[in-house]
Amino acid sequence: METCDNTSVGIIITDHQGRYLMFDHATFPPGTAPAAGHIDDHGTAEDAARAEVEEELGLTVTGLTHVTGGWWGNRCRRLPGARGTGHDWTVYQATVTGDLTPSACETKNVRWIAPDALQELADRTVAYAQGHITDAEFETAPGIEPVWMQWLVNIATIRISPDDLLRVAQLAR
What's the alpha-carbon Rg for the chain, to the nearest Å? Predict the structure, then answer.
């Protein structure tokens, strides 16, 4: 099994209507999220962001703007890295071109989500963190992947209370 490099990139893509390009993970961890992945051997965070968008969505990045990030103690499907369980995240807003051709190995239910529907998915993740939704129910009909709750709060895309954000953070660990 691979060892985690403790670095990740996330790439937020919006359209001219203000909708977010999101998908459900086809692999662990469960949840709805934008494109993301480890930096690994891609070189820089920017190189990794471009590669992940191409790998997961078949799109070409034409511009990247750093919008948030930092350390988050989220698990991944790899063995813990030198820094333990978690990732130093770099999150970008991206502009893209090309035809959407999602990876069947990494994505399912790829779709454009309006801000109000994104908030509903965030509320589902909060309900899961509060114990109102079981693991099986969340895997079948996920809310936002827990790590993404922090980044979407940071850029004022969703709203949740600080207490609920702490509960969500516990899900990722």
Answer: 15
pLDDT greater than 90 at residue 29: no
How far apart CA 58 and CA 115 sit, in angstroms, is 23
Q: Which amino acid is at 100?
A: L
Which residue intervals of 44-129 are DSSP H helices? 45-57, 115-129
Q: Which amino acid is at 52?
A: E
Report how far residue 62's alpha carbon sits from residue 109's, in angstroms, rounded to the nearest whole number: 24
User: Tens digits of per-residue pLDDT, 11-24?
Assistant: 999 999 999 999 99
Is residue 103 classed exposed, middle or buried when 0-12, 13-18 and 19+ CB atoms within 10 A define those classes?
middle
Q: Which of 38, 26, 37 is nearest to 104 (CA)?
A: 26
